[in-house]
Amino acid sequence: MKQAMQKVGAGIAFVVGNLFISLLVLSIYQWASHSFQTNPAIDWVQVHTKFFGMLVLIGGGLLLLTVPLQLKLLVKIQEHKVLMRGCKILILLVMLIASAVFVNFIFQAAEEFMHPDRAIDWIQENRARFLIGVLYLFLFACLFYFVFGNVYLSMILFTTVGTALAYVHYNKMNFRSEPLYPADFQQLGHMKEVLPMIAGYLSFGRITAVLVAIVILLFLVPFLPKIKTVWWARLVLIPVTAFLLYSCTYYESTFVKQGLEKLEIKAVGWNQLTNFKKNGFLFAFVSNLQGDQFKEPDKYNKSQVTEIAQELQKESAVSVFNPDTKPKEKPNIIYLMSEAFWDPTRLPNVTFSADPMPHIRKLMKEYPSGNILSPMFGGGTANVEFEALTGYSMAFLKEGTIPYQEMIEKQPPVPTLVSTLNNMGYYTTAYHPNNKVFYKRNRVYDRFGFNDFISVEDITFKKYSGRYVADESVSKEILKVLKDHKEPTFVHSVTMQNHFPYRGDRYEHPDIEVSGLSKEQTPVLEEYVEGIRRSDVAMQMLVDELEQLDEPTIVVFWGDHLPILGDNKALYKETHFAEGKSKAEEDVMYSKTPMFMYANFPIEQKDLGTVSPVFFPSMVLQYAGLEVSPFYSFLSEVHSEFNGIKSNVKLDDENQIITDLTDKQKQLLNQYRLLEYDLLAGKQYTESLLYNGNP
Questions:
Q1: Chain centroid, CA 461 distance in Å
Q2: Helix, strand, coil percentages in the chain from 3-state DSSP, rounded to 5
Q3: Do residue 224 and residue 314 come from a single domain?
Q4: What is the per-residue pLDDT for 142?
Q5: How many Å apart are CA 88 and CA 86, to the nearest integer?
Q6: Residue 587 within a domain
């Protein structure tokens, strides 16, 4: 049996080897026939892919007819130890380089939404980046080989890991139009909860086929011809390869940086979509391993930020929007961040049998309301609540950063709205009906100063809407918290009901019918709309109960981001949402979700426009008639110039996109960046000045 399998293994090796030789010879021929110009040769192969593939197969078949001669040649080579060793090294290098080329190509194909032609076009335009990527991956392939000692096993494991990484990147781009970042892997421990969310969008048939192929290849590994390297050579080369990999991975602080600069290869940190598109998946992904989530501003030092803070302290004053409506006692404050809540009637060319959010629409007409300019699309909820709880803008951080996971625990506790309210005698509670360790919330909330955190394990009301806790239960839990505490209470609640995915099978009989869409997308939108309708009812139930409460209470309600509707924004594209808009206008449209501020005491209705969540702390403190510290007073000043702030778009106080900043706006943004850096990533020189009012 063993001998038979070894013959099979040898046969496979000969077939693959001859096909590779055929491919190599024909590629060289095409290159020569196009005057040794690479791009025309590649273009010809792209146009005649099937014909070229057939020629490779025919060439490989013809070469197999010469196997007897090849065997005799092999015997001759084996008689010369030096020649045999050289051939083995050459074959080993070719195999490892081929696996590196394959993985890098798969990476780029994933970046191009699995369009091989686009990947080839990118490679033609960016040969240096691609070849450097191949060299980097070759080092990884070598490390696999030096560790495992079997080239076939190493290639299988290396290409499997690379393909899996590419597949994850492809799906994240497909779902959220956002690249894969190293920080995303901090959520690997929660795959049990994540997989059900995306299961309906994965091709389990393809995944199974790949796994079966891997198992078959692993089974054949012991029977393939051996290509060995002495153990001591591998042992010596492991640290050398590891050092080179480290130098390439963390290039910003190693000798590799100069080489990349000479080749004009540079990360685009301020726009990650551009970074991945320009530099390709591999370099862009590695560039996000450099750390530096918040680059230190050029003028950051103690005297600079202290001077700014002292000036703000002098200018700060207690203020309310309308002193006549200030409540007699400290009001309860409720943050209600509704998962993926958005107004679906904003979709053009779609009609609805009924309004899915009549109660919220009525509340928005009666109370201060508008939209938020979310820093995220389709996910990244933690970054939205980060802005709303801290007043710190994601616009100053490197794209892809998740402060909850990468920054909060590296600093002493950062001052937040939570700690501010704690100092005012509030009882503070966070509520999220999901796993408490998602985004490290259990640790982050503690550092923010919350007195309590109610997660899915602790909730009293457990009515579900599909697989997620219903918004109705959220409303009941909020009311319970208010009734359980006599002191003024702050409740930060994050819902789950309308979380992705929307596959059309969550609700048996949606109340609202949708028309104007394809058969494929209609059930998707109807399921989402039914969730919005239920959120609307739950919100009205909360308001009705708060109207009967004898404690003044403010509710800040908003949707954290737009929903994922179809692969690669398929439903949005089908309805021509944002079609014909500029890049900045499109970004705003994909960032706007409804928000309003309800109060069970008199409060002036106002159009808040499209506002960033960073301004929520200063707004709610002012509406509540509470003391406004210098930092929140400064945020109000920034708010007077900017209604919305994102890394790539700014809205003025009239909700128009700013194309040219005034001197005052530049100064405010520079001060904002400096202060945020000091508090979030720096030495916190200004904390006592900006929050406690102490000189």
A1: 31
A2: 60, 10, 30
A3: no
A4: 93
A5: 5
A6: yes
Does residue 172 contact residue 197 with C-beta atoms inside 8 Å?
no
What letter does residue 380 receive in the DSSP assignment? -
pLDDT at 319: 46
288 is written with which tokens? Answer: 């996000």
Of the candidates 665, 613, 616, 618, the one whose C-alpha atom is nearest the C-alpha of residue 642 is 665
Q: Which amino acid is located at 668 in the chain?
A: L
**CA distance linking residue 104 with residue 163, whole number of Å:** 9
Query: Can you list the residues of the chain whose pLDDT is less than 70?
Result: 1-14, 16, 70-71, 73-75, 77-79, 81-84, 87, 187-204, 220-221, 223-225, 269-271, 291, 316-326, 692-695
Considering the entire predicted model, what is its pTM? 0.78
Closest by CA position to 617, among listed 597, 600, 642: 597
| Assigned domain for 386 exists | yes
Backbone angles phi, psi at 172, to 5 degrees: -65, -40
Measured CA to CA, the distance from residue 472 to residue 496 in angstroms comes to 11
CA distances (Å), origin 164, targets 95, 128, 134, 159, 207: 20, 25, 17, 8, 10
The answer as to whether 141 is a domain residue is no
Distance, CA of 607 to chain centre: 31
d(CA 356, CA 512): 7
Neighbours of 491 (CB within 10 A): 25
Residue 601, Cβ density class (10 Å: 0-12 exposed, 13-18 middle, ≥19 buried): middle
The answer to whether position 192 is within a domain reads: yes
425: exposed, middle or buried (Cβ count in 10 Å: 0-12, 13-18, 19+) = exposed
d(CA 528, CA 82): 69
Q: What is the distance between the alpha carbons of residues 596 and 612, in angstroms, rounded to a whole number?
A: 13
Cα-Cα-Cα-Cα dihedral of 589, 591, 592, 595, to 10°?
180
One domain, residues 198 and 322: no
